[in-house]
Amino acid sequence: MALLRFGADAMPSAIESSEGYWASVWRRLRRDKVAMIAGAVVLALILMAVFAPYIVPADPFSGRMLRRLRPIGTEGYPLGSDELGRDMLSRLIYGARMSLLMGVTPVIIAFGLGSTLGIVAGYLGGWFNTIAMRTIDIFYAFPSVLLAVALSGALGAGLTNALVSLSVVFIPPIARVAESVTTQVRNRDYVEAARASGAPGFTIVRVHVLGNVLGPIFVYATSLISVSMILASGLSFLGLGVRPPEPEWGLMLNTLRTAIYTQPWVAALPGAMIFITSISFNLLSDGLRSAMDVKQ
Amino acid sequence: MSEPLVQVRGLTVSFMGGPSPIRAVNGVDLELRAGETYALLGESGSGKSVTLRALMRLNPEKKTRVEGSIRVDGQDVMALNRKQLQQFRGKTLSMVFQEPALALDPVYTLGQQIAEAVAIHEGVSHAEGRKRALELFERVRIPSPERRLDAYPHEMSGGMRQRAMIALALSCRPQVLLADEPTTALDATVQIQILLLLRELQRELGLAVIFVTHDIGVAVEVADRIAVMYAGRIVETGAVRDIIRNPSHPYTIGLLRSRAHGALQKGARLETIPGSPPDLANLPAGCPFAPRCRYAIDQCQTVTPEPVAVRDGQIVRCLRVGELEAV
Amino acid sequence: MSAAAPLDRGGPAQPLLTVRGLVKHFAVKGSLFGAKAMVRAVDGVDFEILKGETLGVVGESGCGKSTTARLLMHLIEPDAGTLIFDGETVGDGGLTMREFRRQVQMVFQDSYASLNPRLTVEASIAFGPQVHGVQARQAVDRAHGLLDRVGLDPSRFAGRYPHELSGGQRQRVNIARALALQPRLLILDEAVSALDKSVEAQVLNLLLDLKEEFGLTYLFISHDLNVVRFMSDRVAVMYLGKMAEIGPAGAVFDKAAHPYSAALTRSMPSMDPDHRTEEAPIAGDPPNPINPPTGCRFHTRCTFAESVCSTRVPALDPVGPEGGPSHLAACLMHEPGSGHSKAEAS
C-alpha cells in the first residue's frame, strides 16, 4: 500500500494532459478583479510586516512628550503622532507584525486541529461523530468574544496565552464546517464506488475525501482571519493580549481612545488598518470560493 | 383561417455572461391554434425548455438576449410591460413544471395558493377563490378534494402534487397551457394517468397545449403535432402520424431507430446516432446536425438548411430531404 | 486483459449470485413522542442471478430496487439476508468482502457524482486495481486499455477531468472504472437513465459488446421497461420492498402473472398514434413505504383485490405449468387454496 501514489506526477504518459485543478483555480481567480486587488493588499501588508524595520521612517518605540497627538500631515509625522509622541506611520507599519501574527496563527492552528477532528468525525459518522460534534456544540453555545476573553483571562495575560485561547475559539467552527463538508462528500457516489472497489477507509479518505474537502475548509478558515484579528485587537484592548509598548493595532486603538475628541483622525487610523486588512482577507476568500467551484 | 393563438417568428435566445454567448435558441418559428396540442421534442440542450420559457418571458432578463416576435392571442409578448405581463402570465398563458415540489410554495396549503391566485387575478373574495379551488381539484380528479385543499405540498404524493400543480395552472382559465416535462419525474403508472388527465382537460376546456418532452412515447400519447428540436432549431415538424411513420430529417429517423423496444431480436444492437449534441457556445457552421449525420455531404458543413415542406404540414430543415425521401 | 479471469468454481449450473431473505429497514424520525416509523425499503427478497445472464429489475420509486443494489455491494449493511457468490457464502468465514467486491462492481446513475472531480480519468480508473495491489504503472496501462475499449481514445481522454467530458463520455469512464477490477458481475443501477436518448443507445450497445467480450453477468436496474426488455434475459418486478414477479423477459412482459407487472407494462406509452392509451391501467400513486399495506402490498391498487388480499401475504411461487418452473409470481390468484376466488381450490 505504501507504493500508492496518486498525484498527477505519479501518473505517467498522460499525453494530452489538461490543466491541473490549481491551474484552473488560478485562471478563474485572475479574472476576478476584486479578489486580485484584495490579494494585492494582503500581499502588501505581509511585505510591510516582514520588512518593517527597513521601511519605517522613525523609531516606533521612542516618542517626545512635547510632540504628542500631532495631526495628520505634520512635518516629520506624516500620519501624526500618538499620545506619547511616537510616529504613527512607523507604529502602524510595525503593528502589522503583531496584528497579522494574531490574526493568522490561531487560524492555522485551528485549521489543523479543527479540520482533522471534523474530517474524522464526518467520515466515521456514528457514535464518534455524535460525541465529537455535541462536545463542540458546548463551545458553540458561548459567544466567541466571551469565550476568548474568558480563556485568556483564565490563562493569564500575555501573547502566547492570547494565541492559545484564540485557537481554541476557532476549532469548533472549523470542525463543524469540516464535518459537514466531509459528510456530504462521504455520501457522493465516487466515495461509494471507491468503497465498492474494496479500498480501506484510510486510502479513501486520502485519495477521495481530502482533496475535495480541504479546499472549502481552507476558504472558510481564511474568512476567520479577519475575525481573529478583531478578537485579538479586542483582547489587546482589554489588556489581555499584547502589552504596551509593543505596537499592535487593537492596543493602539485602546490607548488612543482618550484622544478621540482632540485628534479623531489619528485615533481612527488603527481601526482603519484593521478594517482594510479584514475586508481584504474576506474578499480574497470569497474570490477563492468561487474560483474553486469546478463546474464553471 | 383566423390568426393562430400563438405565433412565434424567428425566435433566438442567447445567454450572455459566459466567455462566449450560449446560443440556446436559433430561429424558432411555431404556430399553435386554439384547442391544439403541440409537443416540443428534444434532448437536453436542444432549446425546448428555453423556447417555452421565452413564451412567458421567464428567462432571466438581464442575462438573456431574446430576438424575434412572439404573439399570443393578438398581444405582442415582447412589448408587454410589467403590469401587463402579470396579467398575461396565468390568465392567457400558464405553466406546469417538471418538479411540482419546487414550483409550489411549501408554507401555504394548496387551497390557499389556488384561492390566492384566483383572488388576485379575478378580483374576487377568498371564499370565492376557495370554491373555485375545490372545483378545480374535482376537475383534476384529486380524491377527497375538500380534505386535500388543506394539505401542504409535502403531504402529497408526486402524482397528487402534479395534479394540484395543474389545478393551480388552470385557476385563472388560461387559453394556453405550457407543460415543461410534467411527467418526467413521475413513476410510469402515474405518468400515464397525468397524460390522460391533460388530454381530457385539453379536450373539455378547449385548451391549447405546448408540451415539452424528451420522450417520443409521451409526445405520441398527448400531441396532435410534434416539433423535433436540435441545437436550438426545429429540424422537423408535422402531424404525429407523419413524424412516427414517415420521419424525414436524419435526426428524427435516428432517434426513432435508436429506441429500444420489445420487438428487437435478443442480442441485436441498436442503430445509433454517433457522437453527442454540439456545444451551444460554439455551434458549427451550416447544419448543426451535420457532424453526426450519416447522410451529410460537404454542403451541409457550410449551408444552413431552410425549411422545406415534404408533405402537407410536415416541414423539414435538411438539404438532402428530397433525395432521402426517395430512399 | 493480462490476468486470467477468475475461476468459474461451481460450473454453469451454479447461480453466480444467490440472494436469500434480504431485509433492510430504515428508521425515520417519528413525532417527538410517537413510535419510530420504519421504512421497509427491502423486506425479504430472494432471487438468483444466473451465470452469463442479464437480470433486469424494474419497479417504481420506493420499490427498493436501488436499495437492493446497494445492499448487494454492502454499501449499506443489510439487517438480514445471505449472499452466496458462485457457491460460496459471502462473509462469515466464506468469501471475504474484499474479494467479493473485486468480483462484483457497480455503475451508478449520476455519471458526474460518481467520479472524483479532482482526479483525472485514468487515475479514477486505476484506483481500484492499485488498491488490490497492482503496480501504479500497470494500473495506468490497464486504464488506458479500458478507455480504448469503451470508445474513448486514451491519448485524448486519459488526462482529462470529469467536468471536461459529456454525460455519455463520463458514463463510459464509469463503466471502464467498474471493469478495471475484472469483475464477473456488474450491477448497473439506472446507468443509462440520465443520458440523452441518442447517447443512451450507444451506451446500451457498448454494454452488450462488453458483456460478450468479457463474459460478464449483469444486474440491470431501470425504470424504463423498453430498455430493460431490450437488455434482459430474465426480469424481476419489485413493488414496495417485495418481489412481485420474476421470470423470462418475454413471459413477464407479454404474459404477466402479477396484476402489477401487467399494469406496469400497459402504462408504457403506446408509440401508436392510432391506438393511444385510453384508460390508465391502475389509479393512484405507489403507497408510502413507511407502513406499507398489510397482506399483499399491491391490494390497495389492484383491480382483482378481494378481502383475503389484505390479510394474507402471497408467497413467491411458480405461476403454474404453462409458465414453467422459472416464472414465479407473488399473487394469491396463483396460489392454490389461498381463498381468492380466482385461485384453484387445493
UniProtKB/TrEMBL annotation, chain A:
Keywords: Cell membrane, Membrane, Transmembrane, Transmembrane helix, Transport. Residues 96-285 form the ABC transmembrane type-1 domain. PROSITE patterns: ABC_TM1 (PS50928). GO terms for biological process: transmembrane transport. It is found in: Cell membrane. The keyword Membrane applies. The keyword Transport applies. SUPFAM superfamilies: MetI-like. One of its GO terms (cellular component) is plasma membrane. The chain crosses the membrane at residues 34-56, 100-126, 138-159, 217-242, 263-284. It is a multi-pass membrane protein. Belongs to the binding-protein-dependent transport system permease family. This is ABC transporter permease. It comes from Oceanibaculum pacificum. The lineage of its organism: Bacteria, Pseudomonadati, Pseudomonadota, Alphaproteobacteria, Rhodospirillales.
Automatic annotation (TrEMBL), chain B:
The keyword Transport applies. It holds the Pfam family ABC_tran. It is a peripheral membrane protein. Residues 8-256 form the ABC transporter domain. It comes from the Bacteria. One of its GO terms (molecular function) is ATP hydrolysis activity. One of its GO terms (cellular component) is plasma membrane. Keywords: ATP-binding, Cell membrane, Membrane, Nucleotide-binding, Transport. Its main location: membrane. GO terms for biological process: peptide transport; transmembrane transport. Gene3D superfamilies: P-loop containing nucleotide triphosphate hydrolases. It is found in: Cell inner membrane. NCBIfam families: oligo_HPY (TIGR01727). Belongs to the ABC transporter superfamily. This is Peptide ABC transporter ATP-binding protein. It comes from Oceanibaculum pacificum. The lineage of its organism: Bacteria, Pseudomonadati, Pseudomonadota, Alphaproteobacteria, Rhodospirillales.
From TrEMBL, chain C:
It is a peripheral membrane protein. Belongs to the ABC transporter superfamily. Glutathione importer (TC 3.A.1.5.11) family. It is found in: Cell inner membrane. Part of the ABC transporter complex GsiABCD involved in glutathione import. Responsible for energy coupling to the transport system. Transmembrane segments: none annotated. Residues 17-265 form the ABC transporter domain. Its EC number is 7.4.2.10. InterPro entries: AAA+_ATPase, ABC_transp_ATP-bind, ABC_transporter-like_ATP-bd, ABC_transporter-like_CS, Oligopep_ABC_C, P-loop_NTPase. It catalyses: glutathione(out) + ATP + H2O = glutathione(in) + ADP + phosphate + H(+). One of its GO terms (biological process) is transmembrane transport. It comes from Oceanibaculum pacificum. Pfam families: ABC_tran (PF00005), oligo_HPY (PF08352). The keyword NADP does not apply. The complex is composed of two ATP-binding proteins (GsiA), two transmembrane proteins (GsiC and GsiD) and a solute-binding protein (GsiB). Coiled coil: none annotated. This is Glutathione import ATP-binding protein GsiA. It is an enzyme of class 7 (translocase). Residues 266-290 are annotated as: Disordered. Keywords: ATP-binding, Cell inner membrane, Cell membrane, Hydrolase, Membrane, Nucleotide-binding, Repeat, Translocase, Transport.
